[in-house]
Amino acid sequence: MNTAFWYASRATGIVALLLLTAVLVLGIAVNRQGRLPGLPRFAVTDLHRNLSLLSVAFVAVHVLTAVLDTYVHIPLASAVIPFASGYERFWLGLGAVSLDIMLAMIVTSLLRGRLNRVLWRAVHLLAYASWPVAFAHSIGSSKDLQQGWMLVAAAGCAMIVAAAVVWRLAHAARQVPRAGRVAALFSQVTR
Questions:
Q1: What tens digit of pLDDT does each residue of 37-90 get?
Q2: Of 10, 26, 43, 149, which sits most exposed with the smallest number of CB within 10 A?
Q3: What letter does residue 126 receive in the DSSP assignment?
Q4: Paired residues of 39 in beta bridges
Q5: How far apart are CA 170 and CA 164, in angstroms?
Q6: Rounded distance, CA 163 to CA 161, Å?
Q7: What is the pTM of this model?
């Protein structure tokens, strides 16, 4: 039995999880101006875009190698049609949901100049839903991630995302609401 596709599917899935975690954490850490301390805006934007594209490439290879693996039959359509696979229907369905969200983000990002900014932002914010769905798919569909060092890596991804969310919420709580900033600015000007 040829196991190359099985190994390739597992490896690319794990790398995709790591990359998607980095993309999400970078997106969470970036402030409204698109900056990180010490980096210019274009560097952060380019880093985010390049990590996103790299993660999409790994997800594509992950899906393709899973479909090509002959150990179980996973139809290609089940990669984009949630819960259509006869094998591990729920867990692979979660992977399809996450992939569909990623595809929506890619399409709207490619059309960003032609779309309403509010619509683009609403779809782009789905990334916050895509990661936990992909994470659940990873843990549920892969026995590898349920033990040993792979479980430690998956738990590390979850802790990093949780820490980024806590940091972002704490940072947002410290920010003065826009109306308060305008009032403070006017009070300084009128003095």
A1: 677 777 888 888 899 999 999 999 999 999 998 888 888 898 889 988 888 889
A2: 149
A3: T
A4: 36
A5: 10
A6: 5
A7: 0.82
